[in-house]
């Protein structure tokens, strides 16, 4: 089984989602199924079928999250330091064509949220910059074509 790297924050968020699904969503769906059953013929009962579909999705999501949590390798970023880009690092990149600065934190696959500046450790940008240092230039093959970046800053907090 492969370990799933994640930050303590990502692990906590995943635990919270499992708790919410089990304590809030499950009971709500069970109630919806019971209510739909009371309406009679289940073969033509759209509410029943929708609730059963939602129940299936919820149970699959719980199973997926619990699998990831069981294989979690929590990496304590507060104990990391240095100028080499690794998992958990907050990296400021400068686009070498436009001089535009972008900051990313390298996180676990299921924590990634580009809008919040968090990219997956398996993303093309992260794979290109891991192991590099401040001042290094990197070429990144993105779906939109090749991009060149300079690593301007590597931070841990």
CATH superfamily of the largest domain: Transcription elongation factor, GreA/GreB, C-terminal domain
Low-confidence stretches: none
Report the top-level CATH class of the largest domain: Alpha Beta
Oligomerization state of this entry? single chain
**How many domains, in number, for the residues?**
2
How far is the first residue's CA from the last residue's CA?
Answer: 31 Å
> Helices and strands: which structural class?
alpha/beta
Strand percent estimate: 25-35%
Radius of gyration: 21 Å
Overall, the morphology is elongated
Number of strands: 7
Tell me the CATH topology of the largest domain: Chitinase A, domain 3
Q: What is the annotated CATH architecture of the largest domain?
A: Roll
Mean pLDDT: 91
Q: Helical amount among residues, as a percent range? A: 25-40%
Written as H for each helix and E for each strand, in order along the chain, the element string is EHHEEEEHEE
Please describe the biggest sheet, giving its number of strands, its sense, and whether it closes into a barrel: 5 strands, mixed
Q: How do the strands of the widest beta sheet line up side by side? A: 5-4-3-7-6
Number of helices: 3
């Amino acid at each position: 089984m492969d370990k799933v790297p994640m930050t303590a924050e990502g692990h906590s968020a995943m635990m919270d989602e499992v708790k919410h699904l089990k304590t809030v969503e499950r009971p709500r769906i069970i109630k919806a199924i019971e209510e739909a059953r009371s309406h009679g013929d289940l073969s033509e009962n759209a509410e029943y079928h929708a609730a059963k579909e939602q129940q299936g999705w919820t149970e699959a999501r719980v199973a997926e999250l619990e699998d990831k949590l069981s294989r979690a390798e929590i990496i304590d970023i507060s104990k990391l330091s240095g100028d080499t880009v690794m998992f958990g690092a907050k990296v400021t990149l400068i686009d070498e064509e436009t001089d535009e600065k972008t900051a990313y934190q390298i996180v676990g696959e299921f924590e990634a949220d580009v809008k919040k500046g968090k990219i997956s450790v398996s993303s093309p940008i992260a794979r290109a910059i891991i192991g590099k240092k401040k001042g290094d230039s990197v070429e990144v093959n993105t779906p939109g074509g090749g991009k060149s970046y300079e690593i301007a800053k590597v931070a841990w907090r």
